[in-house]
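Q: What would this complex look like in 3D?
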Amino acid sequence: MGITKSQIFTEHQNDLAQFFKVLGHPARVAILQYISNQNASICNDLVEEIGLAQATISQHLKELKSIGLLHGEVEGKSMCYCINVERWTDLQNQLNTFFNNTKSNCC
Amino acid sequence: MGITKSQIFTEHQNDLAQFFKVLGHPARVAILQYISNQNASICNDLVEEIGLAQATISQHLKELKSIGLLHGEVEGKSMCYCINVERWTDLQNQLNTFFNNTKSNCC
DNA sequence: ATTTAACATCGTAATATTGCAATATTAAAA
DNA sequence: TTTTAATATTGCAATATTACGATGTTAAAT
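A: Here is my prediction, written as C-alpha coordinates for the whole assembly.
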Protein backbone atom coordinates (compact mmCIF):
# COMPACT_ATOMS: atom_id res chain seq x y z
CA MET A 1 0.00 0.00 0.00
CA GLY A 2 2.86 2.42 0.65
CA ILE A 3 1.07 3.82 3.67
CA THR A 4 2.56 3.32 7.11
CA LYS A 5 0.10 2.16 9.77
CA SER A 6 1.09 4.79 12.32
CA GLN A 7 -1.98 4.17 14.50
CA ILE A 8 -0.66 0.86 15.73
CA PHE A 9 2.57 2.34 17.11
CA THR A 10 3.29 4.57 20.07
CA GLU A 11 3.89 8.29 19.60
CA HIS A 12 7.47 7.77 20.67
CA GLN A 13 8.03 5.05 18.10
CA ASN A 14 6.54 7.24 15.37
CA ASP A 15 8.61 10.26 16.39
CA LEU A 16 11.81 8.31 16.57
CA ALA A 17 11.17 6.73 13.18
CA GLN A 18 10.37 10.15 11.73
CA PHE A 19 13.74 11.53 12.85
CA PHE A 20 15.57 8.57 11.39
CA LYS A 21 13.58 8.88 8.19
CA VAL A 22 14.46 12.52 7.64
CA LEU A 23 18.14 11.72 8.16
CA GLY A 24 17.77 8.74 5.83
CA HIS A 25 18.72 10.46 2.60
CA PRO A 26 22.29 11.13 1.50
CA ALA A 27 21.43 14.62 0.25
CA ARG A 28 20.18 15.57 3.69
CA VAL A 29 23.24 14.09 5.35
CA ALA A 30 25.40 16.04 2.90
CA ILE A 31 23.49 19.26 3.54
CA LEU A 32 24.01 18.96 7.29
CA GLN A 33 27.70 18.22 6.86
CA TYR A 34 28.21 21.11 4.47
CA ILE A 35 26.38 23.60 6.64
CA SER A 36 28.41 22.39 9.58
CA ASN A 37 31.71 22.88 7.76
CA GLN A 38 30.74 26.35 6.60
CA ASN A 39 29.09 27.11 9.92
CA ALA A 40 26.12 28.30 7.86
CA SER A 41 25.09 28.21 4.25
CA ILE A 42 22.95 29.88 1.70
CA CYS A 43 20.80 27.67 -0.47
CA ASN A 44 22.60 28.53 -3.68
CA ASP A 45 25.91 27.29 -2.30
CA LEU A 46 24.27 23.98 -1.55
CA VAL A 47 22.88 23.70 -5.06
CA GLU A 48 26.36 24.15 -6.51
CA GLU A 49 28.10 22.04 -3.89
CA ILE A 50 25.74 19.08 -3.98
CA GLY A 51 24.67 19.07 -7.60
CA LEU A 52 20.95 18.66 -7.34
CA ALA A 53 18.46 21.09 -8.83
CA GLN A 54 17.51 24.11 -6.79
CA ALA A 55 13.95 22.89 -6.36
CA THR A 56 15.21 19.59 -5.02
CA ILE A 57 17.58 21.16 -2.50
CA SER A 58 14.81 23.45 -1.36
CA GLN A 59 12.62 20.44 -0.73
CA HIS A 60 15.28 18.65 1.30
CA LEU A 61 15.85 21.80 3.36
CA LYS A 62 12.14 21.88 4.08
CA GLU A 63 12.22 18.37 5.48
CA LEU A 64 15.17 19.15 7.70
CA LYS A 65 13.29 22.20 8.94
CA SER A 66 10.20 20.08 9.59
CA ILE A 67 11.93 18.29 12.46
CA GLY A 68 13.47 21.51 13.73
CA LEU A 69 17.03 20.61 12.81
CA LEU A 70 17.60 23.66 10.62
CA HIS A 71 16.47 27.20 10.81
CA GLY A 72 16.81 29.80 8.13
CA GLU A 73 17.24 33.53 8.42
CA VAL A 74 16.42 35.92 5.64
CA GLU A 75 19.54 37.78 4.52
CA GLY A 76 18.51 40.16 1.82
CA LYS A 77 17.60 38.05 -1.15
CA SER A 78 19.24 34.98 0.32
CA MET A 79 18.42 32.60 3.13
CA CYS A 80 21.08 31.76 5.67
CA TYR A 81 20.53 28.22 6.88
CA CYS A 82 22.10 26.83 9.97
CA ILE A 83 21.84 23.94 12.36
CA ASN A 84 19.72 24.34 15.46
CA VAL A 85 22.34 23.13 17.91
CA GLU A 86 19.94 22.78 20.81
CA ARG A 87 17.64 20.58 18.76
CA TRP A 88 20.60 18.73 17.32
CA THR A 89 21.89 17.82 20.78
CA ASP A 90 18.41 16.91 21.94
CA LEU A 91 18.02 14.57 19.01
CA GLN A 92 21.41 13.01 19.63
CA ASN A 93 20.40 12.33 23.23
CA GLN A 94 17.12 10.78 22.17
CA LEU A 95 18.84 8.47 19.72
CA ASN A 96 21.42 7.45 22.31
CA THR A 97 18.68 6.68 24.78
CA PHE A 98 17.06 4.48 22.18
CA PHE A 99 20.32 2.73 21.43
CA ASN A 100 21.18 2.23 25.09
CA ASN A 101 17.74 0.88 25.94
CA THR A 102 17.66 -1.48 23.02
CA LYS A 103 20.94 -3.26 23.53
CA SER A 104 20.50 -6.94 24.36
CA ASN A 105 22.27 -10.25 24.32
CA CYS A 106 20.79 -13.34 22.85
CA CYS A 107 20.62 -16.80 21.34
CA MET B 1 11.71 10.39 -10.16
CA GLY B 2 11.72 8.49 -6.86
CA ILE B 3 15.28 7.38 -7.46
CA THR B 4 18.05 8.67 -5.22
CA LYS B 5 21.15 9.95 -7.05
CA SER B 6 23.61 7.95 -4.96
CA GLN B 7 26.48 8.54 -7.40
CA ILE B 8 26.83 12.17 -6.41
CA PHE B 9 27.38 11.38 -2.72
CA THR B 10 30.26 9.80 -0.86
CA GLU B 11 30.13 6.18 0.22
CA HIS B 12 30.04 7.33 3.81
CA GLN B 13 27.08 9.61 3.19
CA ASN B 14 25.22 6.83 1.44
CA ASP B 15 25.98 4.31 4.18
CA LEU B 16 24.96 6.67 6.93
CA ALA B 17 21.74 7.56 5.14
CA GLN B 18 21.03 3.87 4.59
CA PHE B 19 21.30 3.14 8.33
CA PHE B 20 19.00 6.02 9.15
CA LYS B 21 16.58 4.91 6.49
CA VAL B 22 16.28 1.37 7.80
CA LEU B 23 15.60 2.70 11.29
CA GLY B 24 13.11 5.17 9.82
CA HIS B 25 10.00 3.05 10.13
CA PRO B 26 8.01 2.67 13.36
CA ALA B 27 7.53 -1.06 12.80
CA ARG B 28 11.29 -1.55 12.70
CA VAL B 29 11.77 0.57 15.80
CA ALA B 30 9.07 -1.48 17.52
CA ILE B 31 10.65 -4.76 16.43
CA LEU B 32 14.01 -3.76 17.87
CA GLN B 33 12.44 -2.64 21.13
CA TYR B 34 10.40 -5.80 21.48
CA ILE B 35 13.32 -8.09 20.74
CA SER B 36 15.38 -6.16 23.25
CA ASN B 37 12.74 -6.51 25.97
CA GLN B 38 12.38 -10.22 25.32
CA ASN B 39 16.11 -10.63 24.76
CA ALA B 40 15.15 -12.54 21.60
CA SER B 41 12.01 -13.19 19.68
CA ILE B 42 10.41 -15.52 17.26
CA CYS B 43 8.72 -14.01 14.27
CA ASN B 44 5.25 -15.16 15.26
CA ASP B 45 5.44 -13.29 18.56
CA LEU B 46 6.20 -10.13 16.62
CA VAL B 47 3.24 -10.63 14.33
CA GLU B 48 0.93 -10.88 17.33
CA GLU B 49 2.62 -8.14 19.30
CA ILE B 50 2.85 -5.57 16.54
CA GLY B 51 -0.28 -6.34 14.56
CA LEU B 52 1.00 -6.39 11.01
CA ALA B 53 0.62 -9.34 8.69
CA GLN B 54 3.23 -12.06 8.85
CA ALA B 55 4.52 -11.25 5.38
CA THR B 56 4.99 -7.63 6.36
CA ILE B 57 6.89 -8.41 9.55
CA SER B 58 9.08 -10.80 7.62
CA GLN B 59 9.92 -8.04 5.17
CA HIS B 60 10.84 -5.60 7.94
CA LEU B 61 13.03 -8.24 9.56
CA LYS B 62 14.79 -8.68 6.25
CA GLU B 63 15.65 -4.98 6.09
CA LEU B 64 17.01 -5.00 9.62
CA LYS B 65 19.10 -8.01 8.69
CA SER B 66 20.34 -6.22 5.55
CA ILE B 67 22.34 -3.76 7.66
CA GLY B 68 23.52 -6.49 10.01
CA LEU B 69 21.49 -5.33 12.98
CA LEU B 70 19.64 -8.61 13.47
CA HIS B 71 20.57 -12.17 13.03
CA GLY B 72 18.25 -15.13 13.08
CA GLU B 73 18.86 -18.67 14.19
CA VAL B 74 16.77 -21.62 13.15
CA GLU B 75 15.08 -23.19 16.14
CA GLY B 76 13.13 -26.14 14.88
CA LYS B 77 10.26 -24.71 12.89
CA SER B 78 10.82 -21.22 14.29
CA MET B 79 13.40 -18.52 13.79
CA CYS B 80 14.98 -16.92 16.83
CA TYR B 81 15.82 -13.31 16.03
CA CYS B 82 18.14 -11.24 18.09
CA ILE B 83 20.11 -8.04 17.99
CA ASN B 84 23.72 -8.18 16.88
CA VAL B 85 25.11 -6.23 19.81
CA GLU B 86 28.51 -5.69 18.25
CA ARG B 87 26.95 -4.18 15.16
CA TRP B 88 24.48 -2.25 17.26
CA THR B 89 27.26 -0.61 19.24
CA ASP B 90 29.26 0.05 16.10
CA LEU B 91 26.27 1.77 14.54
CA GLN B 92 25.69 3.85 17.65
CA ASN B 93 29.32 4.99 17.54
CA GLN B 94 29.06 5.92 13.87
CA LEU B 95 25.94 7.95 14.46
CA ASN B 96 27.52 9.72 17.42
CA THR B 97 30.56 10.56 15.34
CA PHE B 98 28.27 12.05 12.74
CA PHE B 99 26.39 14.05 15.35
CA ASN B 100 29.56 15.28 17.03
CA ASN B 101 31.19 16.30 13.77
CA THR B 102 28.13 18.09 12.52
CA LYS B 103 27.45 20.33 15.45
CA SER B 104 27.89 24.01 14.61
CA ASN B 105 26.89 27.46 15.73
CA CYS B 106 25.55 30.03 13.37
CA CYS B 107 23.78 33.16 12.18
C1' DA C 1 3.75 -40.21 4.20
C1' DT C 2 0.65 -36.52 5.74
C1' DT C 3 -0.30 -32.88 8.26
C1' DT C 4 0.73 -28.86 10.68
C1' DA C 5 3.23 -24.75 12.17
C1' DA C 6 6.41 -21.07 11.34
C1' DC C 7 8.64 -18.38 8.04
C1' DA C 8 10.10 -16.68 3.48
C1' DT C 9 9.08 -15.16 -1.02
C1' DC C 10 6.25 -13.52 -4.90
C1' DG C 11 2.96 -10.70 -7.00
C1' DT C 12 0.36 -6.81 -6.76
C1' DA C 13 -2.28 -2.59 -5.27
C1' DA C 14 -1.98 1.72 -2.98
C1' DT C 15 0.64 5.36 -1.46
C1' DA C 16 5.17 7.91 -0.73
C1' DT C 17 9.43 9.80 -2.25
C1' DT C 18 12.69 11.81 -5.37
C1' DG C 19 13.83 14.97 -8.79
C1' DC C 20 13.13 18.60 -12.00
C1' DA C 21 11.04 22.17 -15.10
C1' DA C 22 8.07 25.83 -14.81
C1' DT C 23 6.29 29.23 -12.25
C1' DA C 24 5.51 32.12 -8.07
C1' DT C 25 7.48 35.20 -4.59
C1' DT C 26 10.47 38.41 -2.45
C1' DA C 27 13.88 41.91 -1.87
C1' DA C 28 17.77 44.31 -3.46
C1' DA C 29 19.79 46.78 -7.53
C1' DA C 30 19.56 49.53 -11.48
C1' DT D 1 9.34 50.96 -11.81
C1' DT D 2 11.81 47.37 -14.04
C1' DT D 3 15.16 44.07 -13.67
C1' DT D 4 17.70 40.68 -11.45
C1' DA D 5 18.97 37.19 -8.05
C1' DA D 6 17.74 33.86 -4.65
C1' DT D 7 14.55 30.90 -2.92
C1' DA D 8 9.83 28.63 -2.51
C1' DT D 9 6.03 26.28 -4.50
C1' DT D 10 3.46 23.61 -7.90
C1' DG D 11 2.75 19.95 -10.98
C1' DC D 12 4.26 16.10 -12.83
C1' DA D 13 6.89 11.60 -14.18
C1' DA D 14 9.58 7.84 -12.52
C1' DT D 15 10.75 4.94 -8.99
C1' DA D 16 10.48 3.20 -4.06
C1' DT D 17 8.04 1.67 -0.07
C1' DT D 18 4.43 -0.41 2.54
C1' DA D 19 1.22 -3.90 3.19
C1' DC D 20 -1.03 -8.17 2.40
C1' DG D 21 -2.92 -12.46 0.20
C1' DA D 22 -1.33 -16.42 -1.93
C1' DT D 23 2.00 -19.59 -2.36
C1' DG D 24 6.53 -21.84 -1.50
C1' DT D 25 9.66 -24.11 1.92
C1' DT D 26 11.17 -26.54 5.85
C1' DA D 27 11.05 -29.28 9.94
C1' DA D 28 8.59 -31.24 13.66
C1' DA D 29 4.44 -33.93 14.91
C1' DT D 30 1.07 -37.36 13.86
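A: To summarize the key features: Residues 1-5, 42-44, 54-55, 57-59, 61-62, 72, 76-79 of chain B lie near DNA strand C (CB under 10 Å from a C1'). Chain B touches chain A through 54 residues (CB under 8 Å).
Q: Very helpful, thank you.
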